[in-house]
Description:
Order of helices and strands: EHEEHEEEEHHEEEE
Helix content: 10-25%
Largest sheet: 7 strands, mixed
Radius of gyration: 17 Å
Number of helices: 4
Distance between the termini: 34 Å
Oligomer: single chain
Structural class: alpha+beta
Number of strands: 11
Strand content: 25-35%
Amino acid sequence: MPPELIRFAAIASTMETAHARAQDGAPHGTAIVATRQTLGRGTRGRAWSSGPGGLWMSVIARPSRADAIEALSLRVGLATAAALELLCPELPRLGLKWPNDIVIDGRKLAGILCEARWGSGHCQWVVVGLGINVRNQIPPELERSAVAIRTWAPGADPVRLAAPVAAAVALAARDAGPLTTTELHAYALRDVLAGARVSEPVAGTAEGITDGGALRIRTDTGPVREVL
Protein backbone atom coordinates (compact mmCIF):
# COMPACT_ATOMS: atom_id res chain seq x y z
CA MET A 1 0.00 0.00 0.00
CA PRO A 2 1.44 3.45 -0.93
CA PRO A 3 2.14 5.89 1.89
CA GLU A 4 -0.62 8.25 3.00
CA LEU A 5 0.19 11.84 2.07
CA ILE A 6 -1.34 14.56 4.23
CA ARG A 7 -0.94 17.90 2.49
CA PHE A 8 -0.98 21.41 3.92
CA ALA A 9 -0.80 24.72 2.08
CA ALA A 10 1.17 26.27 4.95
CA ILE A 11 2.36 24.82 8.22
CA ALA A 12 4.87 25.76 10.89
CA SER A 13 6.89 22.53 10.65
CA THR A 14 6.19 19.21 8.96
CA MET A 15 8.46 17.61 11.57
CA GLU A 16 6.35 18.77 14.51
CA THR A 17 3.10 17.77 12.80
CA ALA A 18 4.50 14.34 11.96
CA HIS A 19 5.57 13.80 15.58
CA ALA A 20 2.06 14.69 16.73
CA ARG A 21 0.49 12.29 14.21
CA ALA A 22 2.92 9.55 15.24
CA GLN A 23 2.00 10.10 18.88
CA ASP A 24 -1.63 9.57 17.85
CA GLY A 25 -0.75 6.26 16.19
CA ALA A 26 -0.21 7.15 12.52
CA PRO A 27 1.31 4.15 10.73
CA HIS A 28 4.70 3.73 9.12
CA GLY A 29 4.96 5.68 5.88
CA THR A 30 2.51 8.45 6.73
CA ALA A 31 3.90 11.62 5.13
CA ILE A 32 3.23 15.24 6.00
CA VAL A 33 3.78 17.56 3.02
CA ALA A 34 3.63 21.35 3.02
CA THR A 35 3.68 23.89 0.21
CA ARG A 36 5.33 26.29 2.65
CA GLN A 37 6.81 26.02 6.14
CA THR A 38 7.02 29.02 8.41
CA LEU A 39 9.35 27.42 10.98
CA GLY A 40 11.20 24.79 8.97
CA ARG A 41 14.40 23.57 10.56
CA GLY A 42 17.52 21.63 9.74
CA THR A 43 20.20 20.05 11.89
CA ARG A 44 21.13 21.69 15.21
CA GLY A 45 17.93 23.72 15.03
CA ARG A 46 19.08 25.82 12.08
CA ALA A 47 16.33 27.61 10.15
CA TRP A 48 15.47 26.09 6.77
CA SER A 49 14.12 28.35 4.03
CA SER A 50 10.87 26.67 2.93
CA GLY A 51 9.07 28.76 0.35
CA PRO A 52 6.65 27.57 -2.35
CA GLY A 53 8.15 25.37 -5.05
CA GLY A 54 10.18 23.07 -2.80
CA LEU A 55 9.34 19.64 -1.46
CA TRP A 56 9.00 19.99 2.30
CA MET A 57 8.04 16.65 3.76
CA SER A 58 8.32 14.52 6.90
CA VAL A 59 7.72 10.77 6.86
CA ILE A 60 6.79 8.75 9.94
CA ALA A 61 8.89 5.60 10.27
CA ARG A 62 8.45 2.70 12.64
CA PRO A 63 11.59 0.67 11.88
CA SER A 64 11.82 -3.00 12.74
CA ARG A 65 15.17 -2.35 14.42
CA ALA A 66 16.97 0.79 15.58
CA ASP A 67 20.38 -0.36 16.79
CA ALA A 68 22.19 1.94 14.31
CA ILE A 69 19.84 4.92 14.26
CA GLU A 70 22.74 7.25 13.36
CA ALA A 71 23.01 5.51 9.97
CA LEU A 72 19.39 6.14 9.03
CA SER A 73 19.97 9.55 7.43
CA LEU A 74 22.64 7.95 5.21
CA ARG A 75 20.33 5.10 4.18
CA VAL A 76 17.54 7.57 3.43
CA GLY A 77 19.99 9.75 1.50
CA LEU A 78 20.89 6.82 -0.74
CA ALA A 79 17.24 6.02 -1.39
CA THR A 80 16.27 9.65 -2.01
CA ALA A 81 19.17 10.31 -4.38
CA ALA A 82 18.33 7.22 -6.42
CA ALA A 83 14.63 8.17 -6.53
CA LEU A 84 15.34 11.74 -7.67
CA GLU A 85 17.67 10.54 -10.42
CA LEU A 86 14.99 8.16 -11.65
CA LEU A 87 12.23 10.78 -11.50
CA CYS A 88 14.36 13.58 -12.98
CA PRO A 89 16.76 11.92 -15.46
CA GLU A 90 18.10 15.33 -16.51
CA LEU A 91 19.89 15.60 -13.17
CA PRO A 92 23.62 14.90 -12.96
CA ARG A 93 24.74 12.17 -10.59
CA LEU A 94 23.88 13.23 -7.05
CA GLY A 95 26.47 13.22 -4.30
CA LEU A 96 26.05 12.55 -0.59
CA LYS A 97 27.76 14.63 2.05
CA TRP A 98 27.94 13.14 5.55
CA PRO A 99 25.86 13.24 7.60
CA ASN A 100 22.67 14.35 5.85
CA ASP A 101 23.06 16.35 2.63
CA ILE A 102 22.40 15.59 -1.04
CA VAL A 103 24.60 17.78 -3.21
CA ILE A 104 25.46 18.71 -6.79
CA ASP A 105 28.92 20.13 -7.46
CA GLY A 106 29.31 21.06 -3.80
CA ARG A 107 25.98 22.86 -3.56
CA LYS A 108 23.15 21.57 -1.39
CA LEU A 109 20.12 20.19 -3.18
CA ALA A 110 18.44 18.52 -0.22
CA GLY A 111 18.79 17.97 3.50
CA ILE A 112 17.62 15.09 5.67
CA LEU A 113 16.79 15.27 9.37
CA CYS A 114 15.96 12.18 11.44
CA GLU A 115 14.44 12.54 14.92
CA ALA A 116 13.63 9.49 17.01
CA ARG A 117 11.31 9.20 19.98
CA TRP A 118 12.08 6.56 22.57
CA GLY A 119 10.07 4.93 25.33
CA SER A 120 10.90 2.10 27.75
CA GLY A 121 14.25 1.69 26.05
CA HIS A 122 12.73 1.14 22.61
CA CYS A 123 12.39 3.33 19.53
CA GLN A 124 8.71 4.20 19.23
CA TRP A 125 9.05 6.03 15.92
CA VAL A 126 11.36 8.14 13.81
CA VAL A 127 10.33 11.19 11.83
CA VAL A 128 12.40 11.56 8.67
CA GLY A 129 12.30 15.14 7.42
CA LEU A 130 13.31 16.11 3.90
CA GLY A 131 13.81 19.53 2.40
CA ILE A 132 14.36 19.31 -1.36
CA ASN A 133 14.93 22.36 -3.52
CA VAL A 134 12.80 21.75 -6.61
CA ARG A 135 11.74 25.01 -8.23
CA ASN A 136 11.67 27.25 -5.18
CA GLN A 137 13.59 30.51 -5.14
CA ILE A 138 17.01 30.13 -3.52
CA PRO A 139 17.70 33.09 -1.17
CA PRO A 140 20.45 35.33 -2.59
CA GLU A 141 22.71 34.70 0.38
CA LEU A 142 22.55 30.95 -0.31
CA GLU A 143 23.04 30.91 -4.08
CA ARG A 144 26.68 29.85 -3.77
CA SER A 145 25.88 26.98 -1.42
CA ALA A 146 22.46 25.75 -2.55
CA VAL A 147 20.87 24.69 -5.83
CA ALA A 148 17.46 23.54 -7.09
CA ILE A 149 16.35 20.74 -9.41
CA ARG A 150 14.85 23.29 -11.84
CA THR A 151 18.39 24.21 -12.96
CA TRP A 152 18.50 20.91 -14.85
CA ALA A 153 14.82 19.91 -15.00
CA PRO A 154 12.66 23.05 -15.34
CA GLY A 155 9.47 20.99 -15.43
CA ALA A 156 10.07 19.26 -12.10
CA ASP A 157 7.02 19.53 -9.86
CA PRO A 158 7.19 19.03 -6.07
CA VAL A 159 3.57 17.87 -6.02
CA ARG A 160 4.32 14.99 -8.39
CA LEU A 161 7.61 14.16 -6.69
CA ALA A 162 6.08 13.83 -3.23
CA ALA A 163 4.45 10.39 -3.47
CA PRO A 164 7.36 8.47 -5.08
CA VAL A 165 9.93 10.12 -2.81
CA ALA A 166 7.80 9.35 0.27
CA ALA A 167 7.53 5.73 -0.86
CA ALA A 168 11.31 5.47 -1.29
CA VAL A 169 11.89 6.95 2.16
CA ALA A 170 9.31 4.69 3.81
CA LEU A 171 10.89 1.61 2.27
CA ALA A 172 14.40 2.63 3.32
CA ALA A 173 13.32 3.57 6.85
CA ARG A 174 11.84 0.17 7.66
CA ASP A 175 15.34 -0.71 8.90
CA ALA A 176 17.43 1.50 11.19
CA GLY A 177 20.13 -1.11 11.68
CA PRO A 178 23.71 -1.03 10.36
CA LEU A 179 24.33 -0.30 6.70
CA THR A 180 24.81 -3.38 4.55
CA THR A 181 27.89 -4.06 2.43
CA THR A 182 25.85 -3.14 -0.65
CA GLU A 183 24.78 0.16 0.92
CA LEU A 184 28.35 0.99 1.96
CA HIS A 185 29.53 0.40 -1.61
CA ALA A 186 26.69 2.54 -3.00
CA TYR A 187 27.52 5.30 -0.54
CA ALA A 188 31.20 5.22 -1.49
CA LEU A 189 30.25 5.91 -5.12
CA ARG A 190 28.42 9.09 -4.03
CA ASP A 191 30.66 10.16 -1.13
CA VAL A 192 31.79 13.73 -1.81
CA LEU A 193 33.87 13.90 1.36
CA ALA A 194 36.08 10.89 0.60
CA GLY A 195 39.69 12.13 0.57
CA ALA A 196 38.65 15.66 1.47
CA ARG A 197 40.13 17.78 4.21
CA VAL A 198 37.67 18.38 7.06
CA SER A 199 37.91 20.71 10.04
CA GLU A 200 35.07 19.30 12.13
CA PRO A 201 34.05 17.30 14.11
CA VAL A 202 37.86 16.76 14.21
CA ALA A 203 40.56 17.96 11.82
CA GLY A 204 41.91 15.51 9.29
CA THR A 205 41.09 13.70 6.05
CA ALA A 206 37.77 11.93 5.52
CA GLU A 207 38.08 8.22 4.74
CA GLY A 208 34.50 7.07 4.25
CA ILE A 209 31.90 5.87 6.75
CA THR A 210 31.25 2.89 9.00
CA ASP A 211 28.21 0.64 8.88
CA GLY A 212 26.96 2.45 11.99
CA GLY A 213 26.93 5.81 10.24
CA ALA A 214 30.14 7.25 11.70
CA LEU A 215 32.53 9.33 9.60
CA ARG A 216 36.09 7.95 9.49
CA ILE A 217 38.67 10.72 9.79
CA ARG A 218 42.41 10.23 9.47
CA THR A 219 43.61 12.75 12.03
CA ASP A 220 46.67 14.94 11.57
CA THR A 221 48.50 12.85 14.15
CA GLY A 222 47.86 9.60 12.30
CA PRO A 223 45.12 7.54 13.98
CA VAL A 224 41.69 7.15 12.38
CA ARG A 225 38.80 8.39 14.49
CA GLU A 226 35.18 7.42 13.98
CA VAL A 227 32.87 10.32 14.75
CA LEU A 228 29.10 10.67 14.92
